[in-house]
Write a structure and sequence with these properties.
With 190 residues, this protein is mainly β. It has a single domain, classed as Beta Barrel (OB fold (Dihydrolipoamide Acetyltransferase, E2P)). Helices cover 15% and strands 38% of the residues. The chain has two helices and nine strands, in the order βββααββββββ. The radius of gyration is 20 Å and the shape is elongated. The termini are far apart.
């Protein structure tokens, strides 16, 4: 089977979660990988247009991969979905669609003004990005799926785990416990 060239595409601005740009995620393997999950709102016109483009590219890549197979074998193949429903912690659909991108190598990272930067180590869910992806078809046994490689990320709006503005975390003033002396959060051990 001939090698099929990856197809590169850049996303519109999207929210991201499970962001590992500064170091590989080693939760599931010792060598780990750089990764990001991109969330698409199907009601957003720009996102819808991108998802339509991805669907066309996905079908072209699948066809290119399987065109040399006899028709009888092509009928037996199953296709693993590339764009998936996003689920919350309880397994309920969030209304967003997601694409997970990964790489063995650190992706290029740029700020909003296109300056190449070292990625922050504390990027939180909700960070807004654009991502450069490379799509490649893969066949394992009777399954055909698309692998999404992460090439570069532009950080548009950054959210970090160090945000200490309580209102940004969703808190409002309440009646109850009040500390007499102010705590310096930079010296706190969490």
């Amino acid at each position: 089977m001939a090698k099929i060239e990856k197809r590169a595409i850049t996303t519109p601005k999207v929210e991201a979660k499970w962001i590992y740009l500064d170091a590989p995620n080693t939760r599931f393997s010792d060598e780990g990988g750089y990764e990001i999950t991109l969330l698409f709102d199907p009601s957003n016109e720009e996102h819808k247009k991108f998802l339509d483009e991805i669907e066309v590219i996905e079908q072209e890549l699948r066809n290119e991969l399987t065109k040399s197979l006899p028709a009888t074998k092509r009928k037996l193949l199953s296709h693993e979905p590339f764009v998936k429903e996003d689920l919350d912690a309880e397994g309920n659909e969030t209304g967003f669609l997601k694409i997970k991108a990964k790489s063995k190598y650190p992706p290029l990272v740029f700020d909003a003004k296109l300056n190449q930067i070292k990625p922050p180590s504390n990027l939180a869910n909700g960070t807004v990005v654009k991502a450069r992806l490379a799509l490649a078809p893969v066949m394992v046994g009777k399954k055909v799926y698309i692998t999404c490689y992460l090439q570069a990320v532009q950080l548009i709006e950054v959210h970090t785990f160090e945000e200490t503005d309580p209102t940004a975390l969703g808190f409002t003033p309440e009646e109850g416990f009040v500390v007499e002396e102010e705590i310096d959060l930079n010296d706190a051990d969490f």
